[in-house]
Amino acid sequence: MTKIQELGSSLEKLLSTLKKNREAVPPDVLRTYYRQPYEALLRQIGGTAAAFVKAVLTDRLILNPDIPITEQAAVINQVIADSGMERQMSSCISRTYNSDQLYQMALKLRQKIECALWPYIDLKTCLVFDLDNPETEPVTYNTLTGQILRNGVWANQELDLWGKFLFYPNTRVRPYKISSKEEKEKND
C-alpha cells in the first residue's frame, strides 16, 4: 500500500466518523458538550487531509536538479496560492466527506504545478545524435522524464545514451541569479 493510499484510507475513516457524529448529535452539542473530542477530530482530519494532498502533489514530482530548489519551490507555492483550491478542498471535505473528490482536486492542482515546472524540466530536453549512425535524424529526448517526443507527443522510453551526442538547445546561460561578489569577480 502506498503512502497516498494509506493516507486516503485514514482520511476516509476519519470523515466517516465525522459524518456519523454530525448526523447523530446536534451541532450545538458537538461544539459544547463534546467540544474537545470534536475539535480533536477536526484537527486530525485537517492534518491527515493536508498530508494526503501534499503526498499527491509531491509523489514522484520531477524537479530539475540544476536549478535551485528554492526557485522551483517558489513556483509551486505560487501555483497553489493562485489556484484558490485550498479553500475549495477544505469545503469539499466538510460538505461531501469524500476523499475521492479531494484526490481528484489534488490531481488537478498537481497538473497545474507540473505545467508551471515544465520550463525547468524542458531545460533537460535535448537532441540525441547517434555518432555511429550520423545519417539518422536526432531524437528529441528529456533526460529527467526519460521520455522521447514522437509525433508531438511525449512517450516513456529510456534511451541508451552511450556513444551519443546530446545537444541541449534550451540551456540557460545562468539558471539562477549570481551574487554581486561573483559579478565583480567576473568583471575584473
Descriptive notes:
- The chain is of the alpha+beta class and 188 residues long.
- The chain has a domain at 3-121.
- 59% of the residues lie in helices and 12% in strands.
- It is built from 7 helices and 5 strands.
- It has helices at 3-24, 27-32, 35-58, 69-83, 85-96, 99-121, 180-187; strands spanning 125-130, 139-142, 147-150, 153-156, 164-167.
- Strands 4-3-2-1-5 form a 5-stranded antiparallel beta sheet, with no helix packed on it.
- The longest helix has 24 residues, at 35-58.
- The mean pLDDT is 90.
Key descriptive features of the protein:
188 residues; alpha+beta; five-stranded antiparallel beta sheet; 5 strands; 12% strand
Break the fold down into its secondary structure elements and pairings.
Blueprint: H1 3-24, H2 27-32, H3 35-58, H4 69-83, H5 85-96, H6 99-121, E1 125-130, E2 139-142, E3 147-150, E4 153-156, E5 164-167, H7 180-187
Antiparallel strand pairs: 1-2, 1-5, 2-3, 3-4
